[in-house]
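Running this now, will post back.
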Amino acid sequence: MNKFLFAAALIISGLLVGCNQLTQYTISEQEINQSLEKHNQFSKDIGLPGVADVHIVLTNLASQIGREEPNKMTLTGDANLNMNSLFGSQKATMKLKLKALPVFDKEKGAIFLKEMEVVSSAVQPEKMQTVMQTLLPYLNQALRNYFNQQPAYILREDGSKGEAMAKKLAKGIEVKPGEIVIPFTD
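Update: finished.
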């Protein structure tokens, strides 16, 4: 009798897991990070005319989904800076912490990071901190514009069956700690 109940419970749990794959598709932090690493091409020149011009390249992006704040994604990364100013040329590295709202664009089958903002930053060498604080609003706007246009993750029809289904049947996204869930039903 116990073996029968155990077998029945095992079959039911297997069916539930199988049915779950038919109702949603899950994207992990690792998959988002791989996509960001592969597709991130943020490179921008910003500055204050006549005072300072900075060429910024964003590298080493890593995401944390829904862990610090519900429905938000936190990104960390490095910004390599080449600055030309009245005082000469300087190089610096800025450690960035960013926050954004993941949004699904059904037409493009992609997840975009909207409302991107720099939450914190630290510059090396430290003597550059004051200059970078002045340029931070420009960097913030440049990042927001970039991530509004460039998706963090694109669903592929030629990927897994689940990914192809998600591209066709997606009803939006749900942000959960460590993952983004794309439900196929309302």
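The domain at 26-183 is CATH 3.15.10.40 (Bactericidal permeability-increasing protein; domain 1). More later if anyone needs it.
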